[in-house]
Automatic annotation (TrEMBL):
Name of the protein in question: Probable tRNA sulfurtransferase
GO cellular component, one term: cytosol
Family: Belongs to the ThiI family.
Domain THUMP: 60-164
This protein's UniProt keywords: ATP-binding, Cytoplasm, Nucleotide-binding, RNA-binding, Thiamine biosynthesis, Transferase, tRNA-binding
EC primary class: transferase
GO molecular function, one term: tRNA-uracil-4 sulfurtransferase activity
Function: Catalyzes the ATP-dependent transfer of a sulfur to tRNA to produce 4-thiouridine in position 8 of tRNAs, which functions as a near-UV photosensor. Also catalyzes the transfer of sulfur to the sulfur carrier protein ThiS, forming ThiS-thiocarboxylate. This is a step in the synthesis of thiazole, in the thiamine biosynthesis pathway. The sulfur is donated as persulfide by IscS.
Transmembrane segments: none
Metabolic or biological pathway: Cofactor biosynthesis; thiamine diphosphate biosynthesis
Pfam families, alphabetized: ThiI, ThiI_fer, THUMP
Amino acid sequence: MNFDRIMIRYGEMALKGKNRRSFEQKLQRNLIRKLRGFPETRIQKTRDRMYILLNGEDPHAVMQICQKVFGIHSLSFAVKVEKEEELIKQAALLAFEDAKGARTFKVSAKRTDKNFPISSQDFNPIVGGYILKNTENVTVDVHNPDVEIKIEVRQDAAYVTAQDLPGAGGLPVGTTGKSMLMLSGGIDSPVSGYLTMKRGVELEAIHFHSPPYTSDRAKQKVIDLAAQLSNYGTKIKIHVIPFTAIQQKIHREMPEGYSMTIMRRMMMRISEQLAEREGVLSITTGESLGQVASQTMESMNTINEVTNYPIIRPLVAMDKLEIIDISRKIDTYDISIRPYEDCCTVFVPKAPKTKPTRKNANYYESNSDFSQDIAQAIDQSYVIEVEDGEQIQQKDEFSDLF
Ligand code: ATP
Ligand code: MG
């Protein structure tokens, strides 16, 4: 006997009143897309749940995929059997044994088909006794069990489930719009992208790249990070922006103390223009207050002046250690710590101004005209797409040049 289905419970989604239907449909579509590698699986919707019917596909492999899909509160392996005592007992034992390392359990039977000859109360010890007989060093604990085995005897059949495994939470990706993620090769921005996606947001990414000061390896890192993020959502378009000329001009023409602030303002302007072109309504960054010189209140205020797009900063109030914990959990940490040159670190001044002002930034910028440079950077940008953990397509006719 093996599990034949996975039961999915929605989280917050269940609360969404009228939108609920479209949320469910989005979740279903996202699941179907993620399960393309398991062609026998089918999805069945009931009033308040979803089931993935496995039709012979490996339950654990499918579970791993489903646990990364946003909009799911918890999941359980389940098995449907005929309403026969012997079969139900075997299914319960399977469910217990699958919870590796569990030493205590509890059986909770529920009988909605009153024609089934054994009452729920009588059935619990019968099934419990069967598990005890077929295992070693295992005990019943009705208050705080390692596993609760649930049995539902319904009209059509009996369903046995165990273990509520955590889902990824959040809302189905694609239900709350799109954001342009400013993606560096660092630890923070991928975590930020993950948390934004968790709120149902689809991502496009933008990366500023300054060859030959930054290498192909640095660009590859960003592609790998975006690919890893795409495991949690839909396809991600990465816009790679050649940024060398602008950085050199800033270096030549702007006072050193303001070069970082002005560079960030240029990045923000380009991100907004690209977002507008793509019909994307917000920008997401990995900024976290107080972390580095560019992330003081003064800095944020001065950088933010150049856009009136909403900027989503999921990390703004988080500690570095909390951010690192998430990056480990979502498997971006190991990619992020690979050594590389960031366009920001290459030109970063020894003593960047930590308290820039809008007035000064505007004054310095008014001495040079960057509009051509910005237009050219956007014009020469190219797109790399990633989906389900992999790069899918390379549309960059210019890539050899940069
Ligand atoms: P991260 O760990 O994400 O690199 P950080 O702590 O290094 O962040 P900064 O270097 O101040 O912080 O960058 C702040 C934010 O600016 C980043 O989180 C990212 O959203 C954006 N950013 C920085 N460099 C780039 C880049 N080369 N391309 C795109 N976005 C960038
Ligand atoms: Mg960085």
